[in-house]
Amino acid sequence: NEAKLKKQDVAYYELGADEKYLNQIRLINDLKQAIEQDQLVMFYQPKVDLKQRKVTQVEALIRWFHKELGFISPEEFIGLAEQSGLMPALTRWVIKNVLNEAVVWREQNVNVAMAVNLSAYDLAYDDLPNYVSDLLVQCQLSTESLILEVTESAVMEDPEQALNVLHQFKSSGIKLAIDDYGTGYSSLSQLTSMPVDELKIDMSFVLKLDQSKDDQAIVRSTIEMGHNLGLSIVAEGVENRDSWALLEEYGCDKLQGYYICKPQSSSDFIQWYANYDVLSEYQA
Ligand code: C2E
Ligand code: MG
Ligand code: MG
Ligand code: MG
Questions:
Q1: What number does the ligand 1 atom closest to the CA of 256 have?
Q2: In what residue span(s) does the EAL domain sit (predicted)?
Q3: How far is the CA of 99 from the centre of ligand 3 (A)?
């Protein structure tokens, strides 16, 4: 009995680390089930095109409402999916779901392109481009319907391999965006080697744009540089009208953020889309 107690003592002291580890394993198992049993849902957030004065794209963002634990943010479980080898299955689930939704939206005259996030692990294998092309054909969607967002850091993990996959997407006609631009470690010369169409300025430079002269300088010059490289510029994290006005003054192409609309379910988004009028922003 004494020996048992001692063992428990030891276990007790290690419980912190152990428990964390067990929770992670449990979460990985739950995630695997969630993918298989469709317990995940996609939310959608619009990007407003300032030149065309309309919503031209919608970013799909994954949501997991766990049966017992409630909402778990993608920041928490995308990492787990990557570490546990679930990423290929998760990404395929996401793309399939989003393209199926795009078909439904098309029938309802919601004519927007879908932007989907990829992780570094999705660029580590060569088979995703074919999977995506086949799905587009099956859904009778044009390649214009899809934009893939990748971060600089995802590309930098293995640049040669990642660029190869990106070129495959690009040559099939799918547009690519660099996400969270300005936070990664890629150099400007690497930026020009990526076959991208769109550059999304990280929201850390945008959230307080209206209050920070430094952010204004960074954002303004990033927009100018991006334009000189022929890229369309998106600002993410637009939370107020003053930031909108500054971005418009700088010539930013597209805006995304809570000020316009939070990510929401497909049906809520469709309702929002039907009622949204960009022009109301310009009536003083
Ligand atoms: P991201 O691709 O950079 O997505 C933008 C994140 O900023 C989203 O968080 C969005 O909800 C949030 N956001 C949008 N506008 C605003 C704003 O005005 N203010 C603030 N404070 N936040 C705003 P979310 O949905 O939690 O996603 C976080 C990250 O998780 C994404 O960053 C992306 O890297 C990853 N992620 C989300 N869904 C997927 C997915 O389906 N696949 C993969 N591989 N990654 C995903
Ligand atoms: Mg994104
Ligand atoms: Mg981002
Ligand atoms: Mg991000």
A1: 15
A2: 24-277
A3: 21
Q: Ligand 2: distance of its center to the CA of 59 in Å?
A: 7
What b-and-e string marks burial along 165-185, b requiring 16 or more CB atoms within 10 Å of the CB? bbebbbeeebbbbbbbbbebe
**In the 3-class helix/strand/coil scheme, how is the chain assigned residue by residue?**
CHHHHHHHHHHHHHHHHHHHHHHHHHHHHHHHHHHHCCCEEEEEEEEEECCCCEEEEEEEEEEEEECCCEEECHHHHHHHHHHCCCHHHHHHHHHHHHHHHHHHHHHCCCCCEEEEECCHHHHCCCCHHHHHHHHHHHCCCCHHHEEEEEEHHHHHCCHHHHHHHHHHHHHCCCEEEEEEECCCCCCHHHHHHCCCCEEEECHHHCCCCCCCHHHHHHHHHHHHHHHHCCCEEEEECCCCHHHHHHHHHCCCCEEECCCCCCCECHHHHHHHHHHCCHHHHHCC
Q: Does any ligand 1 atom lie closer than 6 A to the CB of residue 94?
A: yes
Residue nearest to atom 4 of ligand 1 (CA): 61
Tens digits of residue pLDDT in 165-214: 999 999 999 999 999 999 877 777 788 889 999 999 999 999 999 999 99
Token pair for residue 88?
A: 């290929």
Tokens 């394993």 -> residue: 25
Our answer on whether the CB atom of 141 is closer than 6 Å to any ligand 1 atom is no
pLDDT digits (tens, 9 = 90+) for 236-284: 999 999 999 999 999 999 999 999 999 999 999 999 999 999 999 998 6
Helices 87-107 and 266-275: crossing angle in degrees, nearest 10, is 40
Establish whether residue 129 lines the binding site of ligand 1, counting it when its CB lies within 6 angstroms of any ligand atom. Answer: no
Q: Which ligand is nearest to the CA of 123?
A: 1
